[in-house]
Amino acid sequence: MEEKMIPKNTSISRFQAYFFIVQTQLGIGILSLPNAVQRIAKGDGWISSIIAGIAVQLTLIVYILLLRRYPNDTYPEIIQKVFGRFLGKFCNIFIFLYFILTGSLALKLFIICINLWLLPLTPIWIISMVILMACIYLTISELRVIARFFVLASFLIGLLLFLSLLTFNLPKDVQYILPIGSSGIKHIFLGSHKSLVSMLGFEGILFIYPFIQNREKGVFKTVTLSNLSITTIYTYFIFLCLISFAPAQLPMIRDPLLFLFEGLSYEMVDRIDLLFLSVWIVPMSTSVIAYLYFSVKSISKVKTYKKVIWINGVLIYCISILPMDEKKIDIFSKFVANLSYIVVFALPFILLCFSVLINKYKVSENT
What we know:
- The chain is an all-alpha fold.
- The protein has a single domain (8-366), classed as Amino acid/polyamine transporter I.
- It contains 15 helices and no strands.
- It has helices at 14-25, 29-41, 45-69, 75-83, 85-117, 124-139, 143-153, 156-166, 185-198, 205-208, 215-244, 256-262, 272-299, 305-320, 326-366.
- Helix 5 packs antiparallel against helix 15 (326-366), helix 6 packs across helix 13 (272-299) and helix 12 runs antiparallel to helix 13.
- The chain starts with 13 loop residues before the first helix and ends with a helix.
- 42% of the residues are buried.
- The mean pLDDT is 88.
């Protein structure tokens, strides 16, 4: 098959692809995930994170098998080739709606966190507008520019890890996670659902794959390494929070990681949690940028790219400023999580199965 010519300004290296996926997965979720997992899996929450990482890896194998069958086509084009024009367009619209809702949820949780910790007197609609304008500005750029920004933003992960090491001066008790496995297999797997939802973003490989340079040689290693990195980071911070807070205390703390950093205090520096959150705004923004980009790529063509970005941005903004209490946000999160099982896990697997059957049918027809 003759390879399509990808413009240089839209192609990215495997190095950039690695950080693109990592930054899409890592954001607001890491701040509150220990709380969500502990509610279900208790002290075995760190095991739930590992199981979620294994599930992501199996899904990535399906992705790569599918993408290698159509190496020069974008994901929306693959869907239309396999399902046909009418059903394919319907699926692409469904994917578009999923990314709009996921981006809206990410932005909603983002602005609630900022409003709660940093700007309690600032109206939510202003915070959302400022953040989204910055995200739209970057998304209008080509993929290479976005990827470069994600690489730079990834250096802040080092700050996160450094601060976490400082917390080992605070009281810790390994007894909080013992005995290992006491929560039972059922609760451990239910807890992995929470981890899996926080790890979403790896589906971005479906959209950036055709633009990766030398993708035939090592893309699978790249996505595997990104998954290993994210699984290790999430597992580490869940474990850290589990041994830092009592089992009865952790479920009552909304953002355990920020609360943990709040305990760090030095003569020259105080309220490290607020300083960290002010910097962590950048990695939290990358998730919104990524989902805005995916939503545009699901339905738009090159000529309408910038126009659709603004339309999608307005949609995400309108949803993000809707008045929601904690109960409604929980319902919204569960709805998006259920949609993710269809879009992120089921649909690519069905596409792979159908593409194999279609290929076998063509082979048998030619013989």
